[in-house]
Structure formats: C-alpha cells, structure tokens
C-alpha cells in the first residue's frame, strides 16, 4: 500500500476505490481505471487535471457529449415539479416522451414501455415476446451482447460469460452471423450460407417453439462486425415466414450512433420490437425503453404482463431523455455522426498504410473499431476472441499506451474502438487517431 501522505488527489481517489469497492468484468488485480473529476464535451479530466479524449463515449452511451447543461436544467426542473411517482401514476413528461419516440421510430412502433437500462429493456422484450406468441425459445447470435442480467446475459453470445455457463437461463439458442472480414466468402454466398444455417437451426429447434430472434441493431462491443447488405432483410423474411418476432436491440446502436436514429434503418427493415437505453439519455441518468407495435401493445388490452420495477418510467429520467432527444435534433448530431464516420474511415485508410498491424477498420457512423492482426495475409488476430490475460499481453500494452497518451477507449481482444460522442469535430478525431497511431507502433513490432 502507498503512503497516503505521498499520494496525489487522483491516486487517493483510486486508493479509496480499490480499498472499498468491487470491479466486475475484470480481475481485481491489475485494473487501471481513470479517476474522473469532471467531463466536458469529448473530454474527461482526472483529479490532477490530466485530460483524456473520450473515444468510446463512456460505454458508447454519452452520445451528445459530457456536461451538457440543458440536461442538467431539465432534470432540475423535473425534480422540482415531481421527483418520483410509482409506475401506476403518470406524468406529463412520460406521455410526451412516448409520443416523441413514436415520432422517431418507423412503422407502427408506437408504444413505449419505460425501463431502467439496456438489460431490463431486453428482459422485458423477451418476456413480452414469449407471452405474446405463446412460444418459449429465443434465438440470437454468437458474438453479441445484450446485457448482464440473467436472461440478457443468456441471450447474448459473448464468450466472456462462458466461465459462468452453468448459470445460463434455458431456451436461448445461438447462431452464427457473417463476419465479412474473416469469412472468405463473396457477399452472395455469405448471405446464402448464413441464412441457410439460421433456417436449419429454426428447423431443429421447431419453428413453433421460437418466440423471437433478437439481434443488435448494428454489432457493437463484439467488434462492429457489420451486417452484410441484405442480411437483416433476409432475417426479417424468415421471421415473417415462421411467425417469429424480430427484436432489434438498439441499446448501443440507437440514437444516432450509426448516423440514423436506429441501426436497423441502415438496412431498410422494421422490427416488431426495439429495445433502447444508453443514448436515450446519453448516460445522464439510467433509463431504457422497449418500443412495440400497436398490434403487440393491443394484445395487452385485456391481459396482464407480469413485469415492472419500482423505477419504471422514472419522471426525472423521462425528462432527461426528452431534452436529450431535442439536443440530437437541435445540434444535427445524426448528420454529424454520419459525416465524421466518413472522415474517420478516410483517415483510418491512411493509418493502414503506416501500420502493418491494422488488419481492418470498419465503422457505421461513429460505431467503429480497428481490428489488429499479427499477419495481414492469414488475418491471425493479435489476441483471439475471449483471450486469456497472456494472449492479451500485446493488446494490453497498446491499451496502456493509449491511456498514458491521454485517451479513454475500449481495447478488447484485438479491437480498438473508435466511438466518440456524436458532437466530435474533425480536429478531435485527428487528435484521437494520432494517439491510437502512436500506440499501434507497439503492435507493429509483433507483426
Ligand atoms: N444491449 C447492447 C447491444 C449493449 O451493448 C448493452 C451494453 O453494452 C446492453 C444491451 C446492456 O445495457 P445495460 O448495460 O444498460 O444494461
């Protein structure tokens, strides 16, 4: 233990946290969080005023950027008016938010059920899909993430859950989706192979047992795998053929992250249910939502759905969400995400020429990542999926360098994420990419 008298304020905050709190998704030993004192725009500052550019928008949720006073004011106004009501009462802001969400959602996705976060939105979707269809199985893909509660973790195909596999809930079945960079197929055969596999699995599991297919609106923390053109349309057709509901999880890809309100809008489909969180309040308060069609909502006109929590439709979170959505519109953040996504792609192409360790860069709007490889020809990843700490040695060094140089972002397996707040400027992108470029010199030595 360090001597308290020699600690800087940042070190003191870290020490208190290490002494008294538990960290998850990582071993307690060796973790190295940033002690954040304040945050503004795309920057975080620690207690010694060291600045970090936030290239992952927190957990890909702070879409409007940090420290926006409009949200603070909306929250204070709501707190002064009414700070809490039970889910059996309603507030003006709840209704206004429901209407606004119906306006930005396509098709008949007009009814909002407000939750607490992404996982609870997905739990509600799973429960509602089962109760609506009278079927019990939920299909989803490997290499996906849908949250950390019991059902949401089970439906996700993230391999980090495997050590706790015995704790998975039953009746979740996984399938493969195309990974264009790694599947050496042309687009047509990639589509036909993956759709044929999905249809075979539906056959094995019994179409009459399958309530829903749940997919991320665009692949996120598993490596921004990107659906090939036509893939989601083919899944939509399969759902229609077998009477299976299509649930799009827009928790991470929603609210402008991909340059549209929702990721699925890049693929010309309309799902039956959409789950949301993160960007709905840009992380200013915990909140989530399940949007369903009029038809699904009407099913509950004379039935109950046994779900709901004390803090459902919390009025203060509703107020934050409503103001946040206005900010996306007033500041043209969807357009900026699309334009900056283009710019990042061009710059990443130039970086590829300098760094032999960059195998691929892919982004949809500002949901992107570099994929780092040992060998561009064989595409051997610098760290395999679900790497052990030993296998992460090089990527851990890259991550540490990124942090040292003043950036906060995710380095997971062989991916370095590029997902800054949607208000990011070209100059800030240059600043962030220069840091990643410097850190990738470490990876280049292992090629
Ligand atoms: N769904 C997706 C696609 C996510 O990326 C996440 C979180 O990263 C979740 C659901 C879970 O959201 P939450 O952590 O708010 O429960």
Automatic annotation (TrEMBL):
Domain of life according to the entry: Bacteria
Keyword Transmembrane helix attributed: no
InterPro entries, alphabetized: Aminotrans_3, Aminotrans_3_PPA_site, PyrdxlP-dep_Trfase, PyrdxlP-dep_Trfase_major, PyrdxlP-dep_Trfase_small
Cell membrane recorded as keyword: no
Family stated for the protein in its record: Belongs to the class-III pyridoxal-phosphate-dependent aminotransferase family.
Keywords, in A-Z order: Aminotransferase, Pyridoxal phosphate, Transferase
CDD domains named in the record: OAT_like
Names of required cofactors: pyridoxal 5'-phosphate
Protein name: Aminotransferase class III-fold pyridoxal phosphate-dependent enzyme
GO molecular function terms listed in the Swiss-Prot or TrEMBL record: pyridoxal phosphate binding; transaminase activity
Gene Ontology cellular component annotations, sorted alphabetically: cytosol
Pfam families listed in its UniProt record: Aminotran_3 (PF00202)
